[in-house]
Specification:
With 417 residues, the chain is mostly helical. 41% of the residues lie in helices and 6% in strands. The strands form four sheets. Strands 1-2 form a two-stranded antiparallel ribbon. A two-stranded parallel ribbon has the order 3-4. A hairpin with a 7-residue loop joins strand 1 and strand 2. It is globular and about 85 Å long.
Length: 417
């Protein structure tokens, strides 16, 4: 699917049946939920739109006129970390805060980094609130906070524990990684998800520093939207993830790297994330079966980064371009869109083999017979049904046991299941 700019505005895109010259949808989604006023966006007001008076704008956060550089669905503008003041080097974006919230948090003993993170959330207005949840005891309920927290859709989200329940495990503090695009198959989604989890474990286990100035993170996000960015673009990354053993002029320096270099290494100074993952797996004595699965996941990422395998965006664009009904004018006819969606479903459900996307990785056909949770039955099984089931399984295991003993017993054949 594609996008073109709306008439009369430079903010955002709408899906209008055009083939997009971009590989990801983040900017499109960001524009779709951008509820900033023209004043907040720093744009002149639309003369054709109804004018709001200052009294009407007053209930909005910041009076509806305080500048907000980003949509509520955007890359992060503030790091949240406890690193002895290092945030002053990396938090180099304009991240407005709600002054009253910041003052109250600081007075309550919240440290400056955390106070600014929360106060930055409160520059937005709530989008939805249920009438039944309007008046709550904020000392015991978190709905009012989550109403703002949950509608700030940023690339990473810090999530406090939910309210404890009488039964079940207590959920702790969490960090939600939100920027990845969903893939076509379970295998791909598992590969990318596992990669993110393992990188987080590597950072903690090896005490690494992957921080970049946020201006460079935003530049990476911009470059990632471009067509074939995985092959054609270079991205800012740290040169040294740990203090270098030898003297260097700037141990905090970053440089531009290809995605393949970020994953597999560059020169003698940067080992790459995938080698670090395997070093970690060896350090924790990962079992051979799991290690082999991890190799298949990492191999998918490496081959995508090298161009040996296509990304989902390149694969879909190629199918559209090769369709007999496509005229090369960016317009996607209905039959092209239908055939593309059907091909995506067929790949996801194991009916179509896409070696250019997945290599030799098999995707088993989707089964629907066990797609839903089957709870343990409370009813008593009738005597006749019980007897029939017992006879069937007794006969099956008797035959398997006879065959097992006929092959010489222990050491002479396969063991019973």
């Amino acid at each position: 699917p594609g996008a073109q700019k709306k008439k009369g505005t430079d903010r955002g895109r709408s899906l209008l049946g055009r083939l997009a010259d971009t590989d990801v949808r983040w900017a499109t989604v960001a524009a779709s939920v951008d509820d900033r006023t023209p004043f907040e966006r720093g744009e002149p007001p639309d003369e054709s739109a109804p004018r709001r008076s200052a009294e009407e704008l007053a209930p909005l956060a910041g009076g509806g006129v305080a500048p907000l550089p980003k949509s509520r669905y955007e890359s992060i503008s503030v790091y949240l970390a406890n690193c002895g003041g290092c945030m002053k080097r990396y938090n180099d974006l304009d991240a407005p805060v709600d002054g009253r919230s910041l003052e109250r948090l600081l007075e309550g003993g919240v440290d400056d980094d955390l106070a600014r993170h929360v106060a930055h959330l409160f520059v937005r207005d709530p989008l939805v609130i249920m009438k039944s949840r309007l008046r709550l005891d904020d000392a015991t309920e978190t709905d009012h906070f989550e109403n703002l927290q949950g509608t700030n859709w940023q690339t990473v989200r810090w999530k406090p524990p939910p309210r404890a329940t009488a039964c079940g495990p207590q959920v702790g503090w969490r960090v939600e990684f939100r920027s990845m695009e969903v893939q076509l198959t379970d295998f791909e989604n598992a590969a990318f998800t596992t990669f993110v989890v393992l990188v987080s474990r590597v950072i903690l286990a090896f005490d690494l520093n992957l921080y970049l100035p946020l201006t460079k993170v935003d530049e990476n996000m911009r470059r990632a939207h471009l067509r074939d960015a995985v092959l054609q673009q270079r991205f800012w990354f740290r040169k040294h993830m740990a203090p270098p053993e030898e003297h260097v002029d700037d141990p905090d320096a970053c440089e531009e790297m290809s995605v393949l270099e970020i994953l597999t290494g560059k020169g003698d100074h940067f080992p790459g994330l995938i080698p670090l993952i395997f070093a970690y797996l060896e350090a924790i004595q990962c079992d051979p079966e799991t290690l082999e699965l991890m190799r298949s996941y990492m191999d998918l990422l490496r081959r995508r980064a090298s161009g040996q395998l296509a990304t989902a965006a390149r694969w879909m664009r190629a199918r559209v371009a090769a369709h007999p009904s496509y005229r090369g004018d960016s317009r996607v006819p209905d039959d092209v869109a239908y055939d593309l969606v059907k091909a995506c479903a067929d790949v996801a459900e194991g009916r179509l083999r896409a070696s250019e996307l997945l290599g030799e990785q098999p995707i088993p056909p989707l089964r629907t017979d066990d797609a839903y949770y089957v709870p343990l039955m409370r009813r008593t099984i009738a005597r006749g049904e019980r007897a029939s089931l017992l006879r069937a399984y007794a006969a099956r295991y008797s035959a398997e046991r006879d065959g097992y003993e006929g092959e010489g017993g222990p050491g002479g054949g396969e063991s019973l299941p």
